[in-house]
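Q: Could you predict the 3D structure of Anti-sigma B factor antagonist?
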Amino acid sequence: MATATVRQDGDTLAFGGALERTAVATLWPQVRNASARILDLRAVQSVDSAGLALLAELCERLGIVEVIGEPTGLAELRAAYRLDRTLAFGS
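A: Sure. Here are the predicted structure tokens for Anti-sigma B factor antagonist:
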């Protein structure tokens, strides 16, 4: 499994690797004060529930308007938690 990474590219936070429980504690300090409108997940290999929680919290805090990419596990978790494409709770 690839180490999870994040980088700021203008108005985009680009993630890579596996967004899983072991990575969340390392990534959170890097992103909690970020400023972005887009999350780019195209280089993410997989997401578990802890990774989804990180992404959903960022979407809420930052007002993310677009999430690009569909890594393994994201669609299933979005459906299970009834989240829309921007990881906000659907109605």
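Q: Anything worth pointing out?
A: Residues 1-43 form one domain.
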